[in-house]
Design the sequence.
């Protein structure tokens, strides 16, 4: 959805103009940012257990660092297959930590029902399949950028949902709708991602099959 959009182009212009020069000044390399993104994803997962607000904020920071490493590599003309491979693998781990943290949050609050657990598992599976279908297609020399739930969209959805969820929870505690409003935003976001990621993976499956048939 964001790939190739005007919003994405504006975001990359912001990175190149303001953040990339800071990284160059600090003598940072793209691989450094990839590892920082992984650590930030781990911190986001841990934070989600106790505070979805901070978990969501750190999730957005994880996405920012993940985007920034690619922009820095291009700016320094250091785009390499090794770095791209490392970045992709670390991204999967970071996303796993974040989703594990969300599940642990529900577990800590005693609301990790089998339905919630299965839904989070479907988000994890769908996210992996979205990435796998793209990687496998590219290995067959087929472009596969279709779909609305790529990593950027997933990170934004999780990050914003975590922050808004905490604000709604805080507001709900002041009125009689407390029990109804508790964690509603986060639950809806998880269901939304579970459906969306798997539909995107299927979309990519049929897209690649169609391309290969042609």
Sequence:
């Amino acid at each position: 959805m964001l790939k190739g959009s005007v919003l994405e182009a504006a975001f990359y212009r912001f990175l190149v103009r303001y953040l990339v020069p800071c990284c160059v000044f600090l003598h940072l390399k793209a691989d450094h940012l990839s590892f920082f993104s992984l650590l930030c994803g781990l911190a986001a997962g841990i934070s989600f257990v106790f505070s979805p607000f901070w978990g969501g904020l750190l999730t957005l920071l994880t996405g920012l660092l993940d985007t920034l490493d690619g922009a820095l590599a291009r700016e320094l003309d250091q785009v390499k297959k090794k770095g791209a491979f490392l970045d992709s693998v670390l991204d999967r781990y970071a996303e796993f930590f974040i989703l594990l943290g969300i599940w642990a949050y529900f577990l800590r609050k005693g609301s990790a029902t089998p339905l919630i657990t299965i839904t989070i598992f479907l988000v994890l599976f769908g996210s992996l399949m979205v990435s796998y279908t793209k990687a496998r297609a590219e290995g067959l020399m087929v472009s596969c950028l279709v779909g609305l739930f790529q990593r950027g969209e997933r990170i934004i959805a999780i990050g914003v949902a975590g922050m808004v969820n905490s604000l709604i929870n805080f507001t709900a505690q002041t009125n009689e709708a407390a029990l109804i409003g508790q964690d509603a935003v986060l639950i809806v976001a998880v269901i939304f991602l579970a459906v969306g990621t798997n539909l995107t993976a299927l979309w990519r499956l049929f897209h690649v099959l169609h391309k290969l048939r042609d």
User: Anything to note?
Assistant: DSSP finds eight helices and no strands in the chain. The mean pLDDT is 88. The chain has one domain: 6-213.
